[in-house]
Amino acid sequence: MFETILDEEERGQVGIGTLIVFIAMVLVAAIAAGVLINTAGFLQTQAEATGEESTAQVSDRLQVVSQSGTFNDSAAKEEITGLDFVIAKAPGASNIDLNEVSVELIGADGQETFLLSDGNATVDIFTDNDGNVVLTDNSDRAEVYINLNRTVASESTTALGYSLKEGDTLSVTFTTPSGATTTAEIRVPSTIVDKTVRL
Fold it and tell me: 23: left (phi > 0), else alpha (psi -120 to 50), else beta?
């Protein structure tokens, strides 16, 4: 079954050069495998982080339960002086810190962006008496009041100075820390008969 080689010249020889080449090939293969494993691990970590951020950007959003406005019917000014929103967590959203939520107003008087904690708004959570402004449960409801005619109280804050009169429109966008946005369109009725107006 096996052929016996009697001629010494026909025997295979493993020299030192062949051994060096073999070791070099093994080392190169090991280094290449290490690089591939490290790269795969990095890409996996990056993909997981991107997936989590993308999910948060879609799901960690607010929903507006109701919206209304306060109407000033004095002879000097007949306009909406403040906006009142009742907001809640959207289904599937994680905890949302309302102090870190930004608000963008876009209307006829221009565009204004501020955080709810900047002093242009007041936040009150109905289900929490500790002064906490973090929505932690789907049953939590928070009242957000935005003072449109706010005057400057200090150098660190700016006046909004928005004027909403009968028939005007205003776009209000809430953006959570994860980047999820919720937009409410405000349309002031052409005729207002009550000081609290549903918008």
Answer: alpha
